[in-house]
Specification:
The protein is of the alpha/beta class and 345 residues long. The protein has 11 helices and 15 strands. The chain is 38% helix and 17% strand. The strands form 4 sheets. It has an 8-stranded mixed β-sheet with strand order 11-6-5-4-1-2-3-15, sandwiched between helices. It is globular. Bound molecules: nicotinamide-adenine-dinucleotide. Nicotinamide-adenine-dinucleotide binds at residues 7-8, 10-14, 32-37, 53-55, 75-77, 79, 94, 98, 117, 119, 170, 172-173, 186.
Amino acid sequence: MAHILVAGGAGYIGSHTVRALVRAGYQVTVLDNLVHGHSGAVVDKGVSLIVEDMGDIAAMTRLFADNSYDAVINFAGYINVGESVGNPLKYYQNNVGNAVQFLMAMQEAGVDKLVFSSTCATYGVIDQLPITEDESQAPINAYGQSKLMYEHILDDCDTAWGLKSVCLRYFNACGASEDALIGEDHSPETHLIPLVLQAAKGIRESIIVYGTDYATADGTCIRDYIHVNDLADAHVKAVQRLLGGGDSLKCNVGTGNGFSVNEIIESAKKITGSEIKVEYGARREGDPPELVADPTVAHNELQWSPTCSDIDNVIRSAWKWMQNNDGHYPRERPSHHRAHGGIFS
Ligand SMILES: NC(=O)c1ccc[n+]([C@@H]2O[C@H](COP(=O)([O-])OP(=O)(O)OC[C@H]3O[C@@H](n4cnc5c(N)ncnc54)[C@H](O)[C@@H]3O)[C@@H](O)[C@H]2O)c1
């Protein structure tokens, strides 16, 4: 049974991917410093959670010496675009600096297969829709820049020591597991669907729509929403490609369909049966009007297609999660479990 190390596996997308890997028959170990992750998100028996920072080179050297890993998936990083504009060094330090330390430990241990969480934010301002991988990459914020830098670093490592990587450029991750055991619990939450559902549940008073004068059918921004379980499945297929001796790859992971902010709100009203108070504000700096993936490369190279990203299905699953403890994990396990260096399964 191949053993997969999942860095950032106690976070939103990572935790769903861990479950998909376990279902696919892999042995899985999670590495997470729990700065934004949740020990309660690691739910499968037999999956160990190692609480360390990927930038701690001594700890990472020990980690790779103690276990043998056939491949690594790296979700670990900071994700808040707005914060990255005000505090770019925080993003470069973690998403590039710490992630490079992690790669050094991988190299030293001879682990040469990596799936990496990249993003459509690496494209910046788009020339043409839907977005193909040939679109020029010119990020407009430090978050997107940090992800693009890492893509380039992975290319150089491929040339230098044969690291094979799959960079998955996600569009908007959303939804939750069908059993509502795990879901999206970011703090602060900046993503549209949980914010809309918080408004539906009365946890927040209203949802603010930024910009109603875009050149889209209803004037609000359009995004490509991909169910987190479809994303998880793309990771399983990327791991299979690498374990099968496949070459490095960069590909979009989206549905190819766009939904406007207003359409998301309408779907949320229908699914929840709740009134949702909407306030309309001005455009936000740096929000492109429309981001929609062309997922052809993922279809052809990974034999991947989304199966559960129907927008009503996405919102139904996210709503079920929101009904459960307001979309938050219960308070974490006792603090001695969370001390750095802690391992529990
Ligand atoms: N959520 C989205 O829509 C989206 C879209 C595009 C790309 N991504 C990328 O996908 C990845 C996962 O996103 P998410 O939404 O699950 O975020 P998340 O914050 O829920 O998960 C990231 C995890 O990484 C951990 N982490 C951060 N720095 C670490 C470090 N130095 N060492 C060890 N662990 C560390 C955090 O504790 C957290 O559990 C991120 O890299 C993000 O940039 C997310």
